[in-house]
Automatic annotation (TrEMBL):
Signal peptide bounds: none
A Pfam short name: DinB_2
Record-given protein name: DinB family protein
Taxonomy of the source species: Bacteria, Bacillati, Bacillota, Bacilli, Bacillales
Domain of life from the UniProt record: Bacteria
Length: 156
């Protein structure tokens, strides 16, 4: 199996094709607004929505850098600020979720169209497309586990 095929499989399993862990799209459709903003009272944990914002930040950053659009690149002072939420309303949650799906699928389209040399071309401010998307897929899997754990803590 070549790197592109393997990466496409990993990328799909992070959003809409269940593999060793549940696909994020399925997990998010089964939880309520109250569950996405909930945080445990003990420990420093982020809410499900904060985690989705964090994942979205890094995907949007890769997408803008891939297209050389650094003027519109998302900004954060540090990793912790990538978890920040917009105004907490159901509409904003639905917008965040939709944007996450769109950015994830846009990166998937780039990968589908990529030729071998595109996979290993360095992206400004990043490594190659294949290395960045591999890292993001692993990052997604890690945080999807947290999201599933948070939802189970709430009885979902």
């Amino acid at each position: 199996m070549d790197a592109k095929t393997l990466l496409l499989q990993q990328w799909a399993s992070c959003l809409d094709e269940e593999d060793w862990f549940p696909a994020l799209e399925k997990v998010l459709e089964e939880i309520t607004f109250e569950q996405v903003i909930w945080k445990p009272t003990e420990g420093a944990m982020n809410s499900i929505w904060e985690i989705v914002c964090h994942l979205l930040f890094y995907k949007k950053r890769l997408l803008t850098r891939f297209f050389g659009d650094t003027a519109n690149e998302p900004q954060a002072d540090n990793n912790e600020t990538t978890f920040r939420l917009p105004t907490m309303t159901l509409q904003k949650w639905n917008e965040t979720k939709q944007e996450y799906y769109e950015v994830h699928r846009e990166l998937e389209k780039i990968l589908v169209k990529a030729e071998q040399e595109d996979l290993y071309r360095q992206i400004p401010g990043e490594r190659s497309l294949v290395l960045e998307m591999k890292s993001l897929a692993l990052h997604d899997a890690y945080h999807i586990g947290q999201i599933v754990f948070l939802s189970k803590m709430q009885g979902a």
